[in-house]
Write a structure and sequence with these properties.
The protein has helices spanning about 1-10, 35-45, 45-55, and strands at about 60-65, 70-80, 85-95, 105-115, 120-125, 135, 140, 145-155, 160-165. Helix content is about 20%, strand content about 40%. A four-stranded antiparallel beta sheet has the order 4-3-8-9, with no helix packed on it. A three-stranded antiparallel beta sheet has the order 1-2-5, with no helix packed on it. The chain starts with a helix and ends with a strand. It has three helices and nine strands. The chain has about 170 residues and is of the alpha+beta class. It folds into two domains: about 1-55, no CATH class; about 60-165, Immunoglobulin-like.
Length: about 170
Amino acid sequence: MRRLILAAILAASPWTASAADDLPPFRDPALPIEARLDDALARLSLAEKAAVLNYTRFEYAGLEAAGSPLVVTATVTNTGSRAGDEVVQLYLVPPPGEEPRPRRMLRGFERVSLAPGESKQVRFTVPDEKLAFWNTAANRFDVPRGGWGVEVGASSADIRLRTALDR
């Protein structure tokens, strides 16, 4: 099993090693391959680990956002050679304001299972209540006016599509 994981790491990484024994010594070259593999896994970023564990790749396209309530759609395609699952996440970036606001807000996610070459349109509906912030001057929740950012990706660290929206 470890050799299979190692093969996937090598395929998804910039290393030029072609076999487990060709891995650079992360700690001590005399250590067994299992210890060096553990080091290799520990050094991968979260996105690299996800790519390794997925055994396939996904492309995102066709981001559209409009309406009230906000409707966001995007198309996800499995461009790899194996079936796989992807968790598509929707983030909204509120316009700047006088009150402190989060930099990015997760407002939806959907898991899609795709065969190789298969595409699926993912649709998120966000009610206006999920866009509102507390307005201390008015003593109520309000949806801030201005330019909102709409982002879709595999995680907050792996945003694949972006667009702007005026509300």
